[in-house]
Amino acid sequence: MDSKIVLQNVTKEIELTSSQDELQKVKVTYLGKKGKITELLKSLKDLSIDEKKSKGAEINLLREKVQLLFEKKSKNLKTLEINSKLKNEFLDITFPPPDFSDAKVHPISKTFNEVVSIFGTMGYTIAEGPDIETDFFNFSALNIPEDHPAREMQDTFYIDNKDDDGNPLVLRTHTSPVQIRTMLNQKPPIKIIAPGRTYRCDSDSTHSPMFHQVEGLFINENANMGNLKGTLIEFCKEFFEVEDLKVRFRPSYFPFTEPSAEMDIAYEVIDNKLQIGKGKKWLEILGCGMVNPIVLENCKLDSSKYQGFAFGMGLDRITMLKHGLTDIRSFFNGNLNWLSKHGFNIGDF
Ligand code: DAH
Prior knowledge:
349 residues; elongated; three-stranded antiparallel β-sheet; 13 strands; single chain; alpha+beta; eight-stranded mixed β-sheet; binds 3,4-dihydroxyphenylalanine
């Protein structure tokens, strides 16, 4: 086809475009791999040397002109786009700021703050880990091998994608993987808590697919079960604001601790209200134990030198107990009426 005609056609087509997308489409039909101008250049190979010279120069000139036309139109379209944004999007700086006087602090946020502050006064720092974990951190390093019933016990959400090294990924079922991350990155003495979101495929009035836990880890050369019990009793007294708190530790099993225990606090119901700390009934509130030497070795810590304790507690559960709330789902359904009734004033936060 004649260069002049091509130039006329492309000029017209460019003129008709009104967006970058449309322009790009036209560009491909002329300058793309199978575009009209590219085909013209390809057809040069069948011509004689002299013809190649003159035709070649002509087509190259055409290509340069066409490229310039596309650049110019693209710039115009950008300017138009910016002008229309300036016209349509504006910020009303006279708009009054939101009124925070009615705002409430969510009970879970309050618990987070209290837990961090109580353990903070005991010298614990905060450690964090990702919500999407590898199978290694969530299970294997914690001495939960494949085929172990604990993997099913925890109703794991598996993720289709694998990490860069091909390892299976899960939504973390507990905050315990943060123990592993910390021990692999820090030398003892270690004293951390790891509050955060956790996930299990479970939903009823006391279980939510997304919930919160706090993990605790203390490692040095002589930590013992007495230190563990003292720490947890002190925490519960402060958190539940009960000085004379009746608790008990029951033997239990967790693959990552040995020995393992569960801590219960006493309660009774008086006038339809839950009283924490006394009475004949028991509520389970956390799991704990001495860190299994296998886990220490998995984290390259010498288990003949170091020992420590760990614990894991459900933050939603202790919030429900402290404030007499009965349905965990109400924490997460975003109901502002509920929040205005059960939330806390910012000043009390
Ligand atoms: N990860 C356990 C769970 O989610 C709780 C737990 C138990 C954590 C004992 C610990 C522990 O650190 O020592 O059921």
